[in-house]
Amino acid sequence: MKNIVLCGFMGCGKTTVGENLSRKLGVKLIDTDAYIEQKENKRISEIFAEHGEAYFRDLEHEACVELAHRKGVVIATGGGALTFERNVQAFKNNCIIVLLDVPLDVVADRLKTDTSRPLLQREDKYEAMKQLYDSRMPLYKKAADIVIDGDNSPLQVAMNIIKEVNI
Ligand code: S3P
After folding, report:
1. Which fold has domain 3-165?
2. Most buried of 12, 39, 50, 89, CB within 10 angstroms?
């Protein structure tokens, strides 16, 4: 089995869908953010605060390159990862990239009380989210091999991925 890489906006359910998918397939789930946090022994928010976003993006790229070499795993990426061509290229050969497509208002509602995502800790949270969402969606769609409606229960989304990917 090729690796399955889940991509999409913050709050689209990559981690929860990934948990369901890995359980159903009986394979390991690796979350790029958790992988980076473990390697660096720091929270993502601390990495952003101490070193800035560009530094985080380099760590994220390193994580994508390393994880792309695994065999038969589910990889849940951070919401920015697949907006960078170098990360798309890292995953292209050995992985199927699946976009979890969730409308802006649904993710905005899920994220309204979130304090863990550095890019959203702003007064104009909804506007910032909308701007990012609008600019990223075309990039996710370009990167994805498969687009799945993510506005369903995580288990349903996982089952739909299994059906689409045909595994
Ligand atoms: C980010 C999304 C986060 C995390 C970091 C940056 C982004 O992951 O990687 O805060 O740029 O969208 P989730 O999509 O899991 O929230």
Report:
1. Rossmann fold (3.40.50)
2. 12
